[in-house]
Fold:
Amino acid sequence: MATIAFIGLGNMGGPMAANLIKAGHKVVGFDLVQASKDAAKAGGVAIADSAAASVKDASVVITMLPAGKHVVSVWTDIIPSVAKGALMIDCSTIDVESARQAHALAGKASLMSVDAPVSGGVGGAQGATLTFMAGGEAKAFAAAKPILEAMGKKIVHCGDAGAGQAAKICNNMILGISMIAVGEAFALAEKLGLSHQALFDVASTSSGQCWSLTTYCPVPGPVPASPANNGYKPGFATALMLKDLTLAQDAATSAKAATPLGQHAQEIYKTFDAAGHGGVDFSGIIQHIRGLAGK
Ligand code: NAD
Structure:
């Protein structure tokens, strides 16, 4: 079993670190926030005095931080203290360029590295059922896989440095767009006097079928476990969807890719977020769509 440093013990990192302990690893953690440190400690994580101190005896280092600038700054800070031969894994959702920068920092110090963002949310982090999308060399991925398996159920090697982040933002761009499409269809159906259940029964078994409809239906009723049945409590908050759509737009701009619907989806979630709904599940976008009628 490995000694693992875990930096960023928030909503996702806290339960992920706890699952590493359940799998028999020793975990030394660090976070800037006392409450996160206390919760992790209660789950069996040994708390270090600093990020650099947490990595001292680790053969694997994992970061789970808000954004690219945090990852690059923490990796710059800790890499001089990381043992030779250790493996660096970043599980945060960040921009592709920062992910590649982090890989380069590790490479300069002859450390293996993997970008491995996740999907599955806090529930997946708690239940160790996350999907990991990994980027990095084959040797680094092979070393990371058994560690990631303690926190998730599906681990996909997507390609070289940054490919995990690329897969994550492409997937979430599909999700953001498709949720708006499903919301628009239900809003139109309501105006046409078509019941939610009738539209669901047809579209869920026809060519309109998609995850946003069949697993995460944005109206209450047809899919009892979807956030629409629970006052649009997240789930996956609008602010996080906006973050991922913005990362997708940044990547599209720097790669010169045309993503007109991705851009429009970003604008729509931005308006919803700016109206104070950042904490609402992203499927609540249907309420914004209904509100546009007649304007
Ligand atoms: P969070 O804000 O709950 O946790 C981030 C933690 O990082 C915080 O506890 C913060 O104190 C800590 N931190 C920030 N800077 C630090 C530093 N310099 N040193 C040490 N700790 C530092 O966020 P989260 O929901 O756990 O998300 C983490 C990452 O996972 C994000 O990139 C997010 O986009 C991604 N993600 C989140 C979800 C979700 O549903 N919450 C789902 C998929 C991916």
